[in-house]
Design a protein that fits this description.
There is one protein chain. With 182 residues, this protein is of the alpha+beta class. It has one domain: 50s Ribosomal Protein L5, Chain: A (2-Layer Sandwich). It is 31% helix and 18% strand. It is built from four helices and five strands, in the order αβαββαββα. Strands 2-3-1-5-4 form a five-stranded antiparallel β-sheet. Helix 1 crosses helix 4.
Length: 182
């Protein structure tokens, strides 16, 4: 199993330059960061927030940040300063390790997975995918899980458009759904 960072340098970069006709190496789309976040929902206790933080620590290998509400919203029972989510931003070696794990293990462990829809890549070439259950990651043992929670994975790229983003992610091994399955 080849690391995605090595793959980008040896095969993916030259293939993208040829496909899109780039003359400069720096025009080639690359992945700049991966952001993982989860909302805690209303009415959840502090123990649930600690469980989500521990889950993120195991999945990402770093301490996540607790996000707080910027203002109070009575209709949602949210007060200013209340912890409403957890996030972690990955760059460098941790980012490449996470992407390798995501493409080779996590997507394969999703129940009823039929591929990623191409609509997961936006018009700027960035990727967003929501996991309904965090147990798709190999660091999480299903028998130890008390309560399931989802998480959102956002991959930020330097791609200029949707087509470049799709080409970049397909080249590194993201399992996109074929056109017939839609």
């Amino acid at each position: 199993m080849q690391n995605i960072q090595e793959q980008m340098k040896t095969t993916v970069g030259p293939a993208l330059r040829k496909e899109f006709g780039y003359t400069n190496v720096h025009e080639t789309p690359v992945i700049t960061k991966v952001t993982i976040n989860a909302g805690l929902g209303k009415g959840k206790d502090a123990k649930f927030a600690d469980v989500v933080v521990e889950t993120f620590r195991r999945i990402t290998g770093q301490q996540p940040v607790r996000t707080k509400a910027k203002k109070s919203i009575a209709g949602f029972k949210v007060r200013e300063g209340m912890v409403v989510g957890v996030m972690a931003t990955l760059r460098g070696k941790r980012m490449w390790d996470f992407l390798t794990k995501l493409t080779n293990i996590a997507f394969a462990r999703i129940r009823d997975f039929r591929g990623i829809p191409e609509s997961a890549v936006d018009s700027q070439g960035n990727f967003n995918y929501g996991f309904t259950e965090h147990i798709a990651f190999p660091e999480i043992h299903p028998d130890e899980v008390e309560s399931l929670h989802g998480l959102q994975v956002t991959i930020t790229t330097t791609a200029k458009n949707h087509e470049e983003g799709i080409a970049l992610l397909k080249a590194i091994g993201f399992p996109f759904a074929s056109k017939q399955q839609k």
